[in-house]
Design brief:
Elements lengths: L15 H13 L6 H14 L3 E5 L2 H11 L7 E5 L5 H8 L3 E5 L10 H5 L6 E4 L11 H11 L2 E5 L7 E2 L2 E2 L6 E5 L12 E5 L2 H10 L8 H6 L19 H32 L5 E2 L7 E2 L5 E5 L4 H13 L5 E2 L8 H4 L8 H9 E4 L7 H25 L1
Parallel strand pairs: 2-3, 2-4, 4-5, 5-8
Antiparallel strand pairs: 1-9, 6-7, 6-11, 8-9, 10-12, 12-14, 13-14
Helix pairs in contact: 1-9, 2-9, 3-4, 9-13, 10-13
Length: about 400
Amino acid sequence: MTGGGNIPVTRPATGMEEAQLIADVLASGWITGGPRVAAFERAVAEYTGTRFAIATSSCTTALHVALHALGIGPGDEVVVPSLSFIATANAVLHAGARPVFADIELDTYNVSAETIAAVLTPRTRAIMPVHQIGLPVDLDPIVSLAERHGLIVLEDAACALGTAYKGRLIGGHTRCACFSFHPRKVITTGEGGMITTNDETLARRVRTLVNHGASMTELEKHAAQKPLLVEYPVVGFNYRMSDLQGACGLAQMQKLPELLARRRLLAQRYRRALQHIEEIVLPAEPAYATPTYQSFMIRLRHADAAGRMRFLEELKRSGIGATPGVMAIHRQPCYQSLYPHAVLPRTECAADTTVILPLYPAMTEAEQDRVVRAVEQALIGVRASWRAAG
């Protein structure tokens, strides 16, 4: 191993600001969802330019409750990419519907109107594109396709807070978008999610559903001038965010512009350093896209799945915490029996040959240079075996 210690694939950008706001919550005695969550929701809504933002316990629960609130359920099909974290498809199953996997475009790792159109059936009710690793989907053709077929579009925007599509931030382009605040995302609350929408009826229904189906929030109840009796007109879920998480999110939102700028700067440094290497396909930057670079994912042009793993092993020996790229959900054990005949060649190519390199705001240029040197050295070690296999 080279000197300098291990370089992780990511590191949350938290510090004293988060600690102080969380300490203030603990001192206040209001720890469950309350004023800090409400303030965090307002901050996200204002940032994304949407009318409403509703906090949840995770992006997975955000996706589930959004599908439920939109009336998606048993007998319905929802088109999703297989190239995504498994929660994308799980949320559809949790809603009682069936995920239908569309292939991707290999340059963007995202679904397109063409790949979605190929899997539509009379049972399709919704399309749920994923802005993979913070690169926005080309939304306009997908929305047009949905309008022609009478379908709902909702976005899995787990990686996309701060992503812009045609100059406008993701959050209000479709019925709703669902964000993640997991530690690997651009900002974090430990766990946590958010639904943004411009649809007042949908926002009201989601807010009720995440709070057990209650007729009012605890904050509304305690702000009232007289005792109120809470009713439960619908059966809901316990998908609430705590004020501890809300406080962390508020501190993170203040840092968001700086965090995004640093990620984009580091991404451009990677581009300049790696662009001469023939074996590496760099991430796409379509004209319509302003990505977050939630991850910097490269594709190994001449590798297969085994070759990709040999490359990762070489990096690990150098102390570099790179990881395999995004999974193909349809090949996971819990989905294989449901989709034994799925034909998704570009998805499988990406799942077998992509690598996520370390990238996080606190990463120094010296650390990044060390990653680049390790990549170059790892390629020397595996290049001959790739070409022999090809």
